[in-house]
Amino acid sequence: MATRVQHALDQLKSNGVRITPQRHAILTYLMESMGHPTADEIYRALEPRFPNMSVATVYNNLKMLMEAGMVRELTYGDNSSRFDADVSDHYHIICEKCGKIKDFSYPSLMEVEQKAEEVTGFIVHGHRMELHGICETCRNR
Question: For residues 99 and 102, what is the distance between their CA atoms, to the nearest angstrom?
Answer without folding.
Answer: 10
